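Researcher: Quick test of sequence recovery. Tokens follow.
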């Protein structure tokens, strides 16, 4: 082909659009400047049209603050956003939202089942989800109030374990040493007391003043009566088994079942025949030998004996009076009774004492 006509000076191209200059206004957005060849302008227009058709050439001037986080996470992290970038981000965000909606919908189907309402009030098992959630919130608020009140009560009326020792020490220091006798005694313990009772106990044996809650063991005020008594260890409910000498079932072993209620023994004992040692009394025997008896015969002299009949070797018939007799024989002897039948003392060596007990 021959050189073009009307070409700008110096053009060596044989294609007209490469030698003809563009004389229109500059279009910076398309990269076109006055004086560019028509070929360059055509290519710029074609590229722009193609980018417009596929969206890559359409730039959107949008502030990132106007894009929500859901869409923002699908956009490029640098450069200008094209219509393609925005479209993809919107499509992906919509799909993401749909997935979340599907999950929520499935959850709501499950939530539509009956609830186990437990401690909730104002709702039933078939109440809707909103009512159940609201009842739960109300319950939590009530519990929060209860917890707050409990915390205030604990703070006001209770102490922690790590501070209790200091509180006890401070209290003891504030009250000083107690003057109450009971502070030195174990509850329900019985102790001997050798002092004077004046001003310490009333007429029933109840303690006065510093002796308050201490009682004489006289059977009053729910106390055991230890007057004239010696305490003996109980054999019932004491545990540990019993040696033979303390078995409750053996005759003479007291079986206590309540403190101070059962009493045994006596101050004096009178022995009877069954309690004395077994023994015999030996009667007197008259030895063999010659001795005399007073005998009385009948008046007719026939030798008839009106009184006792001794063994007589020679009888003088018709004679009354003393006779002489020989032979071995015995006579019954009566032994006179002895003893006054009085009781003997059954008290071991003791010292008298008052017994006192502390009853809280």
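Model:
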């Amino acid at each position: 082909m021959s050189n073009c006509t009307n070409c700008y000076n110096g053009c060596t191209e044989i294609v007209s659009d490469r030698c003809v200059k563009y004389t229109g206004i500059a279009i910076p957005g398309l990269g076109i400047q006055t004086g560019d060849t028509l070929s360059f302008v055509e290519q710029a227009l074609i590229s722009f049209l193609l980018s417009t058709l596929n969206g890559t050439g359409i730039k959107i001037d949008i502030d990132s603050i106007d894009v929500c986080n859901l869409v923002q996470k699908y956009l490029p992290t640098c450069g200008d956003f094209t219509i393609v970038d925005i479209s993809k981000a919107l499509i992906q965000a919509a799909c993401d939202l749909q997935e979340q909606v599907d999950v929520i919908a499935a959850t709501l189907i499950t939530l539509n089942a009956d609830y186990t309402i437990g401690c909730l009030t104002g709702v039933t098992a078939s109440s809707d989800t909103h009512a159940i959630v609201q009842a739960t919130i109300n319950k939590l608020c009530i519990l929060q109030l209860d917890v707050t009140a409990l915390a205030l009560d604990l703070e006001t009326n209770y102490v922690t374990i790590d501070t209790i020792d200091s509180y006890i020490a401070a209290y003891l220091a504030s009250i000083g040493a107690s003057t109450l006798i009971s502070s030195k005694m174990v509850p329900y313990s019985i102790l001997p007391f050798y002092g004077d009772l004046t001003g310490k106990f009333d007429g029933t044996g109840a303690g006065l003043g510093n002796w308050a809650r201490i009682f004489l063991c006289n059977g009053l005020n729910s106390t055991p009566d230890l007057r004239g008594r010696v305490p003996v260890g109980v054999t019932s409910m004491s545990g540990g088994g019993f040696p033979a000498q303390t078995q409750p079932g053996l005759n003479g072993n007291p079986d206590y079942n309540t403190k101070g209620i059962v009493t045994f023994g006596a101050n004096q004992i009178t022995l009877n025949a069954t309690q004395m040692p077994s023994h015999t009394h030996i009667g007197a025997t008259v030895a063999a030998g010659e001795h005399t008896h007073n005998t009385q015969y009948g008046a007719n002299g026939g030798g008839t004996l009106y009184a006792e009949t001794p063994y007589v070797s020679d009888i003088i018939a018709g004679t009354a009076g003393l006779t002489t007799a020989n032979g071995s024989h015995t006579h019954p002897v009566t032994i006179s009774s002895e003893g006054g039948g009085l009781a003997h003392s059954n008290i071991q060596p003791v010292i008298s004492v008052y017994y006192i007990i502390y009853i809280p």
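The helical segments are 16-19, 38-54, 69-72, 83-111, 129-157, 164-175.
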